[in-house]
Design brief:
Rossmann fold; 5 helices; 24% strand
Length: 121
């Protein structure tokens, strides 16, 4: 098990979604950004174990942030399935795609994956 709580960044421009994820992630250190501008500032200042970003943010694409953040586990949340331009990223495990509405057990499993990677490091 990890030595402490994971550092998790949640990026979503819908406050209800961000709050719901924050509640699901209780017990971890959770930072919330409402767009890419704030999120990019946070990833420059902090290292995150998990980054969860909405695909369609009002100021850009969450996938671009995930590629820049270099978190142990990167998750795209979206109301639509991924298109073929992300096939290689998904196949390589660079990030995970979770459709909205998402289930807590799905988020818990991805956070547990990051915890296992953290404890192995």
């Amino acid at each position: 098990m990890p030595t402490g709580p994971l550092r998790i960044l949640v990026v979503d421009d819908q406050p209800m979604v961000a709050r719901a994820l924050s509640r699901m992630l209780h017990g971890h250190v959770v930072h919330i950004a409402d767009g890419l501008g704030t999120a990019y500032q946070l990833v420059k200042q902090e290292t995150y174990d998990v980054v969860i970003a909405d695909h369609n943010l009002r100021d850009g694409c969450g996938v671009d942030l995930l590629r820049a953040a270099h978190a142990q586990v990167s998750v795209v949340i979206s109301g639509a399935p991924p298109d073929e331009r992300y096939d290689d990223d998904l196949a390589s495990g660079q990030f995970h795609w979770v459709n909205k509405p998402f289930r807590r057990k799905t988020i818990d499993a991805l956070v547990a994956q990051a915890a296992r990677q953290e404890s192995a490091a």
